[in-house]
Please model this.
Amino acid sequence: MSSFNSFDETLSAQFSDKGVTLELAPFVVRIYTDIPSVLAGLQLYYSEYPVPGSSAFADFHVSLRRPRSAYRWFRPQVSFEFDGTVPFKPLPYEQAYPMFEWGLNWCIANHCHRFLMIHAAVVEREGCAAILAAPPGSGKSTLCAALVSRGWRLLSDELALIDPATLRITPIPRPIGLKNDSIEIIRHFNPSAVIGPVVKDTRKGTVAHMKAPVGSILRSRETACPAWVIFPRYERDAAVRLRPHSKARTVVRLAENSFNYTLLGAIGFDALIGIVDQAECYEFTYSKLDDAISIFADLKAPLLCQAR
Amino acid sequence: MTLRVVTLCSAARLKISPLWQDECVVFDAASCNTYAVPKLSAQILEMLQAEKALKTSTILAGINAKGDLDEQELIRVLDITLEEFQRLGLIEIIAS
Amino acid sequence: MSGPMNVAAAKALTRTETLIDCSLGDWDIVIRQCRAAKVLAKLAARLEDHGLLDLIPEAPRRHLISAHLVARRQNQAVEIEVEQIRKALARTQVPIVLLKGAAYAMAGLPAARGRVFADIDILVPRERLADVEAALMLHGWIGTYHDAYDQRYYRQWMHEIPPMQHIKRGTVIDVHHAITPITSRIRADSKKMLAAAAPLPGHDRLFVLAPEDMVLHSATHLFLEGELDSGFRDLADIDTLLTHFSAADDSFWERLTERAVEVGLARPLFYAFRYTEKILGTRIPPRIQAKAAVGSPARPLLSLMDALFLRALRPKHSTVADRFTGIARWMLYVRGHWLRMPLPLLVYHLARKALAVEQSG
Model:
C-alpha cells in the first residue's frame, strides 16, 4: 500500500473521476472531488494514512463538488454527496474542507450501528480509555487536543465507537475540529501542532483542524478498554474540579449523548451498564489546560482495565 | 393511604440495572426511555415485574420488610413514586 | 428466460449462495446498490437464512448488521404504532385494513423481514373517513400539507385526506378508502377486496387483505403510481409474497390470476409477473404467465413499458443507470400522475411541482 503524499494537477483530475481511496481505520473511504481546498486538506491531514488499491471495499463513497444550479454563478457553493444521495444543503464554497469532515461524521453516525456510538472524544494511555462526553460547545475538543498534545493517544475527537459485545472502543483517529478561541489556545499550547487553514463564518463559527498525532494514526487498529467516563465542561476562571458522578445518572447522560442508543434498544442499554459498571465516572470542570492535564495524569485506572 | 391495585403497563418491557450507590437505572425496551431512580423505586418495579398486579399495601409491606423504616414517610414516598411512574407510562392503576 | 438480471443487488437477493465467492470489490457494489434500493437488511436476512452471514468478510458484514438493526427497530416501532392507531380508532368501531409494510409486519410475513418502514397505510370505509380523521386528530395526529393547493389536491381532486403526522411520535399515517384513487383510469373493485379482508388474530378490528389481494395491491401501487424510488424494493416484496404464498398453497397462482381479472387489476398483475421474472428471476409457471397475458398492453406499448420499467425498477444507483434511466423515471412519474388525474389537472400539477423545485434549488 502506498502513501498519499503527492499532489498535483493531474491527480486532481484523477480524484475527480476515480476518487482517492483512504483507509481511515476501521473504515475505507473513497473521495471524489476536484476542489483544491479539499485535496490540499487531504494531503495535509491524511498523508500518513494507508491507501488501499481501487478494488478495495469502500465503506463510504463521498463526493464534494460545486452543485449544478443556477445559483452557482451568484455565490459559489459546495455540495456533499454520499453515494448519490445529498444529505445536506450546499454550503459556501470556502467551507468545502470542514464539510468533508462533517459529512464523514454524518456517514459514520448514520450507518455504523454495528457500534454503540456516543458523541464523545476518546483518549487513551496504557490501554485505558477516557470517554469525554459532552454536548457541543463544552470545550471537549479543546481538552481532547490538549491531552493528545501531552502524550495521550487519540482514538476520536467526536465519535466513541463501542463494540456492544466486548465494550472495547474502536479508534477512528482523524483531524480534531477546533472552534473560535480554541484554535489560538491550542496553537499556543502546542506550537508543533499541525493546524490547517482557518475557515470563517461556518455554522459552528470559525473552524480549523489539528492533525492527529502520527503515533495515534499508526496505532489506529488498537482498541482500548473504557476506564473513565468524564463529563467535561469549560468554565472561564473556574478552579479545576473532578467530582465522582452517580453511575446511574452517567448511564442516562451517556444515552442522551448517543447517536443510536434508541436504535440499539436493549443492546445499547446493556452496553452502557457494562461500561459504567467497570469505569470510574466523573464530572470535570476546568479553565486552565495545564491544570486539566495534571488531573488527567493522576487518574488511576480501575483494576479491570489494568489487566487488559 | 388510599388502597390501589397497581400493575406494570402492558406495553412496558423493563430492565433494571445493578444497584450503584443506592441508585439504579430503569430501561423500558418498548420506548427506550431510560431513567435513573433511587433504590426504593427500583425495588417497587422489581416487585411489579415478579407479580402481575399488586395492592399498594403489599408493596408497602415488601419494601418495609424489616420494619425499620418510618411508615408515614414510606407511604408518602410510595404515593409520589407511583404517581411519577404513572406519568412516565410505566404503570397503570387498575382499581381503587 | 431464467435467472435474475445482471444487476448485483438482484443476484445477491436471488442467488444469495453465490455471494460466498464475492470479492471485496464486488461486495462494494452489492452493498451500495442494496443500500440505495433499501434492501440491505433484506439481504442480511437472506444471508442469515443461508447460514452465510458469519462467513462473509468483516467490512461488508458491518454494514449488513447495521441495516439489520435499523430494520429490527423499525419492525418493533411498527407494531407499537399499529397498536396506537388501533386504540385511537377503537371508539369509532371502524374496521381497519392494514396495507403494505404494516400488513406484512403484523401478519408475520417473510416480506416484513429486513423491511424499512416509513408511513403506515390503512384502508377504511369511505363513509367513515370523516370519523376516522376526527378520531386521529383527537389522539394527536395532525394534518400535513397545510398549503391550500395541497389540501385541494388531496381532498377535492384525489378524494383522499393528506397524510397525518403524530405530534409527539412524529410517525405518519396515510388513510385510504379505496385500493386505487377515485380519479384513477384503472379502477380496482375495492369493495370486493375489502369484503375478502381477513381479520388479524389477536387484534381487535384489524384486518389484512387476502393473499391474492395483497399481491394485487402491491402490484397496483408499483405499476400504476409514478414514485419508483422504492421500485426495486417493492418488486422484491412482490417476489417474496409470490414465493411465500405459492409455497403454502398450490392453487394460489390460479386464484391470483383469476382474482386479477375479477377486480379489474389484470394489467398490473401482468407487469408484476413480467418484471419480477425479468429482473429477479422469479419462477412463475408458464401456464400462469399465459393466463396473465390477458392483462398485457398492445405490443408497441409493451415495448415502451419494457424500456421504461426495466430501467426504472433497478436500484436507484449510478452503477446500474444508463443515460436513459433518468428520462425513464421521469416518464413513469408523469404516467403515474396521468393515470390518476384528468389531463388539465395533470398539467397544472406538474407545472407547479417544477416551479417549487426550481425555487428550492
Summary: The longest strand of chain B covers residues 23-28.
